[in-house]
Design the sequence.
């Protein structure tokens, strides 16, 4: 069915009036969207946490910069690996001058592909908000060389927290770190090795290494999240800290989060990674068709237990205690949590839609794509950092019962 405004514009006799009508409708549409967004944010019960999150982000820019660097690093890896560059002229930023001639896709064409990434973005606030590869390779090197004493702090924390089983967890971490170091070598040398080994065998080896490296990549992301949560916690309490000590403190808290992270890794491996790896060994029909469903299930699991990770970070408790605290948190604060999830969903959907629209309009203009992806990494990093800091503030406010009494944090 046609929209009445489309019919009116089509039958208007003067093209100038038609163009002006479209412009007016566009202006009113944007005013309505911006006004609705302002109403949602300003009158939401979680607005105090959102404002405090902005203050925290202004005090510690490392929160959003960390997400931006990791996001842009992953794009550079994909860009170098999968984008054919014929010559340096392909990267000229002068391509932006042709902006008026770009073909812009409609929102109706791109909205289905943005829903799942937006859902995963919301889930990442409560688990692991960024992809760490290929910078996880640097993290593996730093861990092995005991940078800032993190390796020693990890071993001590695992031993004190899990006893003998801590050494088994450490072995898994070490093997996955080695797989993360091997991963770029395997993919780099894959074309040369194809002359020596069958293609099917090489694919099986690369898939196995990738699955093993995923454990370390995910846990690095979780540790970064734990570290940033502790930074936000220090801000809410007005504490100063020495950088190296905070890294080691976050590692000790990370040992408590490992119980929950292990469950997430196990479920993710079972429903996401394992079918993809097995497809290289046995025939699994339409294995990729189930991938979106598995991603939705993983995001739903993380959102359903959203406060477990932050509870483990802040309280040094067992997983069972964190589960009980989560049930209590949901019972007491379901409305505020629902508002926060809606606001997170709005922001992630908007930035994902902008990304899809810009990528569709840019097409094969590689210079413009590189510039946009850098801007997108900064935009997403800022939004993710703000929402993570706001989540820490909201959790602390709900937990201490000071939703209506707590004063704004001015420093």
Sequence:
């Amino acid at each position: 069915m046609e929209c009445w405004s489309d019919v009116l514009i089509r039958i208007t006799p003067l093209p100038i009036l038609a163009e002006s009508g479209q412009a007016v409708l566009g202006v009113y549409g944007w005013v309505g969207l911006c006004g609705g967004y302002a109403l949602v944010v300003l009158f939401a019960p979680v607005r105090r946490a959102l404002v405090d999150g902005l203050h925290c982000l202004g005090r510690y820019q490392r929160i959003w910069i960390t997400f931006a660097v990791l996001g842009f690093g992953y794009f550079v890896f994909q860009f170098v690996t999968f984008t054919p560059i014929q010559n340096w002229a392909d990267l000229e930023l002068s391509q932006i001058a042709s902006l008026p001639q770009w073909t812009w896709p409609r929102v109706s064409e791109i909205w289905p592909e943005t829903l799942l990434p937006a859902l995963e973005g919301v889930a990442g606030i409560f688990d692991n908000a960024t992809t760490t590869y290929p910078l996880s390779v640097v993290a593996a090197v730093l861990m092995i060389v005991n940078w800032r004493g993190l390796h020693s702090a990890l071993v001590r924390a695992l031993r004190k927290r899990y006893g003998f089983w801590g050494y088994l967890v450490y072995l898994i971490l070490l093997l996955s770190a080695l797989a993360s170091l091997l991963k770029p070598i395997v993919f780099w040398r894959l074309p040369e090795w194809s002359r020596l080994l069958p293609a099917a065998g090489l694919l099986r080896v690369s898939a196995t290494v990738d699955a093993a490296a995923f454990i370390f990549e995910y846990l690095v992301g979780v540790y970064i999240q734990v570290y940033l949560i502790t930074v936000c916690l220090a801000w809410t309490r007005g504490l100063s800290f020495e950088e190296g000590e905070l890294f080691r403190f976050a590692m000790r808290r990370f040992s408590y989060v490992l119980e929950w992270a292990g469950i997430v890794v196990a479920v993710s491996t079972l429903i996401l990674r394992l079918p993809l790896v097995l497809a290289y060994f046995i025939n699994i029909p339409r294995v990729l068709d189930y991938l979106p469903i598995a991603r939705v299930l993983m995001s739903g699991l993380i959102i359903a237990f959203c406060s477990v990770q932050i509870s483990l970070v802040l309280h040094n408790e067992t997983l069972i205690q964190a589960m009980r605290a989560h049930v209590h948190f949901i019972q007491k604060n379901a409305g505020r949590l629902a508002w926060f999830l809606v606001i997170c969903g709005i922001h992630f959907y908007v930035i994902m839609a902008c990304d899809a629209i810009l990528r569709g309009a840019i097409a094969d203009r590689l210079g413009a794509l590189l510039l946009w992806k850098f801007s997108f990494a900064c935009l997403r990093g800022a939004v993710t950092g703000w929402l993570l800091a706001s989540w820490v503030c909201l959790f602390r406010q709900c937990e201490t019962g000071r939703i209506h009494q707590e004063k704004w944090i001015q420093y």
Notes: Residues 220 and 348 are 23 Å apart (CA to CA). The radius of gyration is 24 Å.
